[in-house]
Task: structure prediction
Amino acid sequence: MNQYPGVLGRKLGSTQVFKADGNVANCAVVEASPCVVVGHRTKEKDGYTAVVLGFGKRKAARTNKPQAGQFKKAGVEPQQHVKEFRLPAEELAKYTIGTVVDLTAVFTEGQIVDVQGRTRGRGFTGVVRRWAFAGGVQTHGTHEYRRHGGSIGTNMTPGRTLPNIKMGGHYGDENWSTLNLKIVKIDTERGLLLIEGGVPGSRNSIVIVRGAVKKMGGKPKA
Amino acid sequence: MNTAPKINDLESVYLRKDLPSFRAGDTVRVHYKIVEGDKERVQVFQGLVIKQHRAGARSTFTVRKVSFSVGVERVFPLYSPRIEKIEIVGQGVVRRARLFYLRELQGKAARLQDKKDA
Result:
């Protein structure tokens, strides 16, 4: 399980930056501030340790009373998006309830991160787009068989189509983690993270940025 | 231009004021820094601007020249720190912003009338 610190953010879009060597880095821009600490989950009380982070404004009138009570207890404004981040206990101690998470304390420039989000919905999609099937030949008398997937099984044995065969269907609008992206820049002034590579989701969608689980222990590259 | 004001704000630091303004049809000399191993040198690419992509800090322009009878096109990021300078050699008279029709033309037909002769 990913136990590296992270933040909640909003994908604003993409841009490019010029690196020190003059090359271009294509970046997604994630607005990740103010991300506030709403609460803690502790071993004694909850059986595990985690930090509860909130992001985005929410009208007080749109907040139900149980949730409003939790925000009031933490001394923060009502938050639109609330998410728990599992953390080791010593890491949890760095987060004070009611404070805004400092991006530079969580990430460093050049760090490798994982980004979770919800991909753009593509509706009912054929196999060529959804599974990158090659489709059929376009010529040599092909008749209404250009973007098909071909055979989906055998005849008598087993006499049925096996489960999990790749076919057309609903594509996108699923939770997705893109691993091993790089933080190019942290803009504390505007509260932005610039992440090189493809961040899942549409503009203004909510994403979770955490230290990379498979690389360098979520620490910056030496 | 980007629709998010924060991104435009972010990009504004890359905008350079020291470059001359030019348009499609102009002949330019682009002094471009090239890194070879650990050495850096400036290469000059002279040709005709056939396209400008205007997108804030992400703007690019395409320069076309014919080198040893082979057409060569290069896309430069306009605000790249590798561009040392851009010289405008001549201004052509053109009636469109994208001069892709020149790719089909050769020799005398591929010339443009200069603004000062017009």
User: Anything to note?
Assistant: Residues 64 and 73 of chain B are 4 Å apart (CA to CA). The first strand of chain B starts at residue 26 and ends at 36. The first helix of chain B runs from residue 5 to 11.
